[in-house]
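Figure caption, in words: inputs first, then the predicted bound structure.
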Amino acid sequence: MVPEIRHARRIRLCGAISTPAISGSTPGALVIVAVVTDTPTTGGPGLPQERRLVTAIPGPRSQEKLERRQRLVAKGVGTTLPVFIEAAGGGVLVDVDGNSLIDLASGIAVTSVGNSAPAVVERVLEQTKAFTHTCFMVTPYDGYVDVCEHLAELTPGDHEKKSALLNSGAEAVENAVKIARVHTGRDAVAVVDHAYHGRTNLTMAMTAKNMPYKQGFGPFAGEIYRAPMSYPFREPVEISGEQAAERAIDLLEKQVGAANLSCLVIEPILGEGGFVVPAEGFLPRLKEWTEQNGIVFVADEIQTGFCRTGDWFACDHEGVVPDLVTTAKGIAGGFPLAAVTGRADIMDAVHVGGLGGTYGGNPVACAAALGAIETMREQDLPARAREIGVLVGERLTAIADKHACVGDVRGRGAMMAVEVVGADGRTPDPARAGAVSAQCHEQGVVTLTCGTFGNVLRFLPPLATTDALLTEGFDVVSAAFDATA
Ligand code: PLZ
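Bound structure (PLZ present):
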């Protein structure tokens, strides 16, 4: 008799034995011993790398859990794709109904090395067994200093560097501003249009978009000034990167005064703001101007950093060497870790005890970062991001050729996007972008939107994904554009 396996997901094969160990079976027959278990499937790269839909999205088990989530979790915490995840690895997420989804989001640019990457898991387990916390400010440990050593080596520039480790991207940005203010003795902070820097009070003020990040949460921190960004697709007339930089500089000089600015904080490619790639020359000119005026240039590489754009850092592309760099997300394969890294003299401007926090540079998060960085180095993930960029770029260009609603294809490496517009080729069409994304979700592909106007579909696959998954994923994206036409 062949047993029917209804919920393969929940059956773990424990081994095969030869009878007569089990009474009543034919001596010598092979008996497969299986145990039904609630233990979740192990994630990591060993998971079958496939899209598999066995229920509607969300499936019944996810729906049950969503009802519970709604009862217990604050409404303000949103959900992009309402399935509960049980295991993930490589380029897929597996939900509690047994659906395997193609991941084109990496938990917002975090799991670049893949979910449960072996080197991350191994080091985390080892560290967890040794000790989980001391607070680095109370009694130090090697992992923290090791991460700082990697950061000094990998971030742009070969000058002497130091780092401080924190828990989240927003916290890293806040600390960069604190450091720049002490170093310069100035208050004002310059940011750009469409910027995203976080959800804490200071970083909300630095973030451009009101809904959902700022609405009702004021009053915001003062002394934040916003300059125009280089946004090639939306320039009324085409201007060069240098010209766009002069426009920003002129505004800051007239409205703030260079001598009052402590720092300019900028994402080298805007993330939440719409994957806006500034025109070439924009960043180098801004860097030059900050140097001339004693302003600290802070590159927010929280989304772009750690191989995402095909270099270790997006600033590398044009050889821009920031004074300070903020990192988070991809640094630790999914563990909460963030950093400010920069010129030793600037970092050391702050008095002893002025920087820190209970968990900043937690030993387990540091172990995860060491595993993630080791993986990026060994597998040359910047090169993999460039390969992904070629594949995804070709697919998106093909979609743009077919659908006039794609006004712009942009990005770099494994950080690519399309901007969706109306019939005039310009008016943002967030409804269409949302419909395409929703269709992808229904078909088992995890996509995200972004942009000040909500009309940008962005793609951030794990660098650990396969070409086959990317190809299938973009078949689905392409079909979603057809279906919503
Ligand atoms: N700087 C450039 O991309 C985080 C935000 C998701 P935290 N981006 C994802 C959301 O809706 O909250 C981000 C970023 C850049 C800073 C941050 C903030 O990083 O780790 O989310 O605090």
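The first strand starts at residue 11 and ends at 18.
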